[in-house]
Amino acid sequence: MSKQESTDEQMITLIDENGNEQLFKELFTFDSDDWGKSYIFIYPAEQENDDSVDIQAYAIANNQDGDGEDLVPIEDDKEWDMVEEVLNTFLDNDGNFKA
């Protein structure tokens, strides 16, 4: 999926393979020295005030054109475990984000 930053640095528009756009809010990003990658947690902007949100995680990679970044699905189980562990350190026991 390609990532386009909007005017608000916290907002991201994802464009799927069919050209459909969806607005997401960035929860946070982090770098992993072990995996040599950067990661991002996002959630749909329309869920911002909901009791529960669908948090998604992606690896961040420079796109082939060199003019932006792509969000790449995490497919390796060990890599996913690491990303999930990072997210869990920021969630309380009820699944709420701790600022």
Automatic annotation (TrEMBL):
It comes from the Bacteria. Coiled coil: none annotated. Signal peptide: none annotated. Belongs to the UPF0473 family. NCBIfam families: PRK13678.1-4. HAMAP family: UPF0473 (MF_01448). This is UPF0473 protein H5R63_02435.
